[in-house]
C-alpha cells in the first residue's frame, strides 16, 4: 500500500469542501482522493495497488440524519448512505415492506463485512474482474484507459453478457443496487455545486468506449441518501441470487422482482438483473411483456427470453444466458406466489 493522507469530515458540506481543496492540489493530480466509509472494497484495492488515492476523506464522523439514519415517513423510505448494510438488512420496516432490499443485503458478503460496509460504498463498489484487480495484468481499460481488455480472450467465466462493449466486459458485482433500480429509487447527492438528485438507474454508466468512467457522479460528489417510494406492491418483492456457493460469494446471476398483481394478472412488473451485466440492469422490455398477462411459467419464460435479448457471450460465460433466464423465471414465480394483497 502506498502512503496517503487522511482528513476527517463531520458534515456533508465539509466532506465536499475537503474534496474540492484536495482536487485542486498538485498532490492529487494523478492520484485522486477517495471518500472512506466502511472501506471494505477501497482498502482491498489500495493494498492491491489498483487504487492509489493520495488522500482519504473519512466521512464516518458525519452524523446528520440524511446520511446516517433510516426513516419511513409519508410513503417514502430514506436510507442514509452511511447506514451499515447489516443495520438496513435487519430493519423491521424494510424486511416487511421492502423485502427485496433486505434480501439483497442479507445475501451479500459476510456478516463481518455487512457490519462494516456502508450502503453508499456498496452501491459504488468496483468490479471483481480479476484483470482489473490484479495489477500484473497490464491490459485493463478500466485501470489503464486504452490498454485493452485482457478478459475478452482470457478467463471470462464471471464476466457480463449484457451491456458489454468492445472495450470492457467486466460485470457489476453488487446486489443492493439491483434492488434499488427495481424499486425506482432516486439518489440525493451533495456536491461542489450544491445538492441534486437523480434516478438511481442513471447513476451507473455502461462501459462504452470509456469503461474507466463508471458513474455519472462529478468529482467531489457525495451520495447522501437513497430514496425509495413505499408503494403497496413493494411488499410483493424478492431477490433471488444464484452463485457458486451459498454464502460469501458474488452472483453468477440474480434477479430483483417487484410485482403489482390483480389476482393472477400482472398490473405492473419490475425486473432487474445482477451478475450478468456491466451495470445494475433493468429489463424494461421484459416488464412490458408481462403487463396485463397472467403470470405463469409460460409467460415468465417468455419474459426471461426478452430480458436477455442482445446478450453477448464469450468463451467461458455463455452459461450465464440460460442461467440468467432460469433465475428470472424462478424469481418471478416465487414473487407471484407470495400471496400478498396489494
Separation of the first and last Cα atoms: 52 Å
Strand content is 15-25%
As a percent range, the share of helical residues equals 25-40%
Uncertain runs: none
What order do the helices and strands follow? EHEHEHEEHHHHHHHEEEEEEEHHH
Bulk shape: globular
Q: What structural class results from the helix and strand content?
A: alpha+beta
| Main sheet record | 5 strands, antiparallel
Number of strands: 12
Oligomeric state of the chains? single chain
Give me the side-by-side strand order of the main sheet. 4-5-8-6-7
**Arithmetic mean pLDDT:** 95
Rg of Cα set: 20 Å
Fold and architecture overview:
The protein is an alpha+beta fold. Helices cover 29% and strands 20% of the residues. It is built from 13 helices and 12 strands. It has a 5-stranded antiparallel β-sheet. The protein has a 4-stranded antiparallel β-sheet with strand order 9-10-11-12, sandwiched between helices. The chain starts with a strand and ends in a 6-residue tail after the last helix.
Briefly, what is this?
This protein has 342 residues and is α+β, with helices and mostly antiparallel strands. The protein has 13 helices and twelve strands. The strands form three sheets. The chain has a five-stranded antiparallel β-sheet with strand order 4-5-8-6-7. The chain has a four-stranded antiparallel β-sheet with strand order 9-10-11-12, with helices on both faces. A three-stranded parallel β-sheet has the order 1-3-2, covered by helices on one side.
Amino acid at each position: 500500500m502506498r502512503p496517503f493522507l487522511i482528513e476527517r469530515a463531520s458534515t456533508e458540506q465539509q466532506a465536499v469542501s475537503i474534496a474540492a481543496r484536495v482536487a485542486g492540489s498538485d498532490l492529487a493530480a494523478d492520484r485522486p482522493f477517495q471518500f472512506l466509509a466502511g472501506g471494505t472494497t477501497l482498502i482491498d484495492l489500495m493494498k492491491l495497488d489498483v487504487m492509489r488515492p493520495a488522500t482519504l476523506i473519512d466521512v464516518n464522523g458525519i452524523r446528520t440524519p440524511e446520511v446516517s439514519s433510516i426513516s419511513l415517513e409519508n410513503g417514502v423510505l430514506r436510507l442514509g448512505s452511511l447506514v451499515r448494510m447489516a443495520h438496513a438488512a435487519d430493519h423491521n420496516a424494510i424486511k416487511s415492506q421492502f423485502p427485496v432490499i433486505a434480501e439483497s443485503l442479507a445475501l451479500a458478503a459476510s456478516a463481518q463485512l455487512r457490519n462494516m460496509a456502508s450502503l453508499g460504498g456498496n452501491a459504488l463498489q468496483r468490479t471483481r474482474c480479476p484483470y482489473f484487480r490484479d495489477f500484473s495484468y497490464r491490459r485493463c481499460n478500466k485501470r489503464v484507459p486504452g490498454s485493452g481488455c485482457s478478459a475478452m480472450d482470457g478467463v471470462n467465466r464471471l464476466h457480463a453478457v449484457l451491456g458489454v462493449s468492445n472495450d470492457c466486459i467486466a460485470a457489476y458485482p453488487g446486489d443492493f443496487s439491483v434492488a434499488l433500480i427495481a424499486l425506482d429509487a432516486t439518489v440525493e447527492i451533495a456536491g461542489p455545486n450544491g445538492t441534486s438528485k437523480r434516478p438511481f438507474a442513471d447513476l451507473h454508466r455502461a462501459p462504452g468506449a470509456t469503461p474507466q468512467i463508471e458513474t455519472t457522479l462529478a468529482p467531489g460528489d457525495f451520495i447522501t441518501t437513497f430514496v425509495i417510494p413505499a408503494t403497496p406492491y413493494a411488499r410483493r418483492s424478492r431477490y433471488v441470487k444464484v452463485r457458486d456457493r451459498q454464502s460469501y460469494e458474488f452472483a453468477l446471476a440474480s434477479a430483483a422482482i417487484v410485482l403489482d398483481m390483480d389476482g393472477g394478472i400482472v398490473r405492473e412488473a419490475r425486473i432487474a438483473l445482477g451478475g450478468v451485466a456491466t451495470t445494475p440492469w433493468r429489463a424494461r422490455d421484459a416488464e412490458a411483456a408481462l403487463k396485463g398477462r397472467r403470470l405463469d411459467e409460460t409467460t415468465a419464460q417468455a419474459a426471461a427470453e426478452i430480458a436477455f435479448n442482445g446478450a453477448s457471450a464469450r468463451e467461458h460465460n455463455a452459461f450465464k444466458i440460460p442461467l440468467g433466464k432460469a433465475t428470472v423465471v424462478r424469481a418471478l414465480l416465487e414473487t407471484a406466489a407470495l400471496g400478498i394483497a396489494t
